[in-house]
Fold this sequence. Notes:
By secondary structure, this protein is an alpha/beta fold. The protein has helices spanning 19-33, 75-81, 111-122, 141-178, 193-196, 318-327, 363-370, 379-386, 392-402, 407-415, 421-427, 435-441, 485-493, 549-564, 589-597, 624-630, 632-641, 652-671, 675-687, and strands at residues 7-14, 36-42, 58-62, 95-102, 126-127, 132-135, 247-255, 271-280, 290-296, 309-313, 336-342, 448-451, 462-468, 471-472, 482-483, 518-524, 539-544, 573-579, 603-608, 645-651, 691-696. Strands 1, 2, 3, 4, 5 and 6 form a 6-stranded parallel beta sheet that branches. β18 (573-579), α15 (589-597) and β19 (603-608) form a beta-alpha-beta unit. α18 (652-671) packs across α19 (675-687). The radius of gyration is 28 Å and the shape is globular. The two termini are 50 Å apart. 38% of the residues are buried.
Amino acid sequence: MYGAPKQRFLLLYGTQQGQSKAIAEEISQQAEQHEFIADVISLKEISKFHLENEKDPVVIVISTTGNGDPPDAALKFVKKIRNHELPDDYFSHLRYGLLALGDSEYTYFCNGGKIIDQRLQQLGARHFFDTGYADDCVGLELVVDPWIKDLWVALEKEFLTRAENEKLIGELKDVNNKNPDIMKVPGNLDIDIETISLHSELPLSYTSLQKAESNTCKEDVEHSLVHSVPPLCDCSLNIPSLSPLHLDVQIFDCITKEIDINLMYPEDEIFMVPIRQAKRLTTEDAVKTTLMLELDISNTTIEFQPGDSFGIVCPNPTGEVTDLIKKLGLSDKKDCQLGLTVRSGTKQRGAFITDYFQEKCSLQYLLTWCLEIRALPKKAFIRALVEYTSDTGEKRRLLELCSKQGSADYNRFIRDHSISILELLNAFPSCKPPLGLLIEHLPKLQPRSYSAASSSLFHPGKLHFIFNVINLEPCSGRALPRKGVCTGWLAELVKPNDEVCEEKAIACSEDMIATEPQISIYIRPSTSFQLPMDISIPIIMLGAGTGIAPYIGFLQHREIQRQQKKECIFGDTWLFFGCRSHNKDYLFRDELRRFLENGTLTHLKVCFSREPPCTSNEYMLNYVQDYLKKFSQDVVRILIKENGYFYVCGNAKNIGKDINAALVDILCAERSVDKLEAMKMLASLKDEKRYLQDLWG
């Protein structure tokens, strides 16, 4: 009906890197078109919403971080609803829909959303719309887009059902008032919505997702990031709705003053520490360059345990920042102060200035330290870029890339190659977006996390960590290779004036570093990836490449403990380690040999994926999961009979699922159970915090 008030729903989001927030904003913008009003609130703003009294439908968009944890912004909310004193019917009045974001390369897929979903239902809340599980591995939009589309149908049904229930309750009360002897209806009657609904359930389910089919067009010179071929270029397109700009940017003539980077991370204690030493751990002809840095933390209050990680506050590459400023036509304004205001008359509900924007910072500072300019451009961002593109062909191609029909091309040419906004603007030169558009769509530049590779007992006042210098090769859309944001920056910081370590030794005895640069860090304590409190419990450590880092800290710590507690009995320590070559990238070879000789490490199993077996009869143990299966009896004995701990550390795409599958096979064989039962046993180990993972993407 014309003039009827719009129906309100509460829209909550919990984000780590900005994806959940961007999706929540998209839902909010579409809500206006569907005659709804979305009250958008971050889960970290826990005082601004009260689910215990919420009468309207609730929509939650939540990401997953770390090893299956809710994002930092949602931790207080999760702690609140996990209060064991809450009654089972605490949220019995609540109807909600939840969209969980995750990455299937990780073991705990969408676990942040699953934690909240499960707890809400334990407290009596019920769905009005099926939970969606969006997979960043194949493209969030494959689930997000249809989930949002069907959300409006579900909301309409929910509000219609509520209206019918209210009418029915009113009629029942009216009958009760007129015929008091016939029936009594309590004044606080709460009728089960699902029981009396006159409408069938929506056929919506997003609990599984198949990977998108690749584009079937033949490969030719025409089909690339900037060119499509039929049928894509001939078909009509389903594109995201356009989000109007809600920020105004002012550039002042005055030069900016120095900004305190600590203001960007108010919830963390940031320390500026010097890099005392840098060593290359791989030979020059190794496939990857692995460096170890030693930080001096003696003048800080930093305390850490083996297994903890820490974040490094790093800048975007200087050259890319300069090129992006040039693309924006603002080279002469790079050192001038910026001001942001919410655009007058904006229709976007909840429009605000990001909390990491520091007042009076310069354009150079903003793009160097505040915004993730390497972030993958989302489809909503690409859709917005179309409005600032003058060339007709380029405009059409951008529309294709952000469309439902162009999902395969988006994955192939943008997602798979991690194309940045700068590279996109280089590929589409007629696109000239305003600075405000970038500020609205680019997420906050996140610190990079690294595992501690040392023990404070063994190296007091020092913190070691290792990393591979990441190299991304040229591709369609990227003319030149580029290094990782943080690893490339660190490698440049410690680059020697003259080439050192010319000999082909695994561990370089000379410092690479000529000066002592300083970096900003903060500690990220682990809640579970730590040595067992009981030193008699056996442990199995498994990792590949730089995944060995936390185990060096474990073993250093255990070595000192053994010296301090000679009368105590220590459990066995197993290490399964995988690398490419015995001569090129066998990290910490000498130190591991020393641990083995002094008894700190009781079993060391190393395999080399790029070397042939020593003898023709030797079983091909190319990968750590192969070695694990060879010692399956010991693995099961330690885990099942001796209540031992099993640790996995490494790249999620290369090791997480493989080790999980290997353990299932081992349990099937050694315990004579089927696959389902083995998976249940593995799940029990995870619940008991005895199967622990430290994985990264």
